[in-house]
What we know:
With 283 residues, this protein is of the alpha+beta class. The protein is 62% helix and 11% strand. The protein is built from ten helices and four strands. It has helices at residues 2-30, 39-50, 59-76, 78-97, 107-127, 135-145, 151-169, 172-194, 209-220, 250-260; strands at 199-205, 224-230, 237-246, 265-271. The protein has a four-stranded antiparallel β-sheet, covered by helices on one side. β2 (224-230) and β3 form a beta hairpin. α2 (39-50) packs parallel to α7, α3 packs antiparallel against α4 and α6 (135-145) packs across α7 (151-169).
Amino acid sequence: xxxxxGTVWWNWMLIVVGLLASASAYRLFxxxxxxxxxxxxxxxxxxxxxxxxxxxxxxxxxxxxxxLFAVTVRSLGWRVGARSFVAMLALSFFIDWLPIPAATxxxxxxxxxxxxxxxxxxxxxxxxxxxxxxSDLLGKLIHEKFPYIRVGALVxxxxxxxxxxSLFIFDTKNALYALISVGIMNxxxxxxxxxxxxxxxxxxVTNHSEEIARQLLSEIERGVTGLYAKxxxxxxxxxxxxxxxxxxxxxxxxxxxxxxxxxxFVIATNVHEALGEGFKELG
Length: 283
């Protein structure tokens, strides 16, 4: 029970810190410099500019998100849906009312640091088990109706339309800086979700699989999996090895394979995420 309560508090702490970070990105950098970095908040920036500030930036995402949450609350789950709805309202409120002035009028600095801070904030909100709705939620909703359309493509399309709108409503320069900010924000969001650790998967085709596996297990202390393989040219049955290591262990793995079998065939591929013993916890 204590563990569950601790997890809930930790999730809410991540959400609150993420909300403050992402709202600060807009208050400090993106809104003052008219950089509409995609999403429903970007739509809010465009609408606010068109109306001369009569409609605030934060109110537009609320208007657009409320019907989305009403439609998707079942698929999100009541708990996640409630957290996400609160996070969405809080983000809109902070964007309009957080008492901090603009940090700079330099558009390059604003696009870079706005993207960094915004991506970090949205990543922390997602790690806390919530969402602020927007283009991601709309993309998922459309994907459910049309499964052949990928969510990522829909999000890019929506963000692209917002940036295209800023081209006409603001300026060409603003749109280009918005494109930079979106790229940095997406990169930083992934970094906040997955962390700095990177892993590599090695597929090793060799006639000395037992010896290589033994050394990998004893020296690197990583699990090794033997996969049945057959050389279609030679017709010989082989055991192909699969081993996932972190970046620092890659060099030692190659040294071991080379010392045992100089003719081994090795395939290395970047791993998007590694969960389990020796890497991040599955939970």
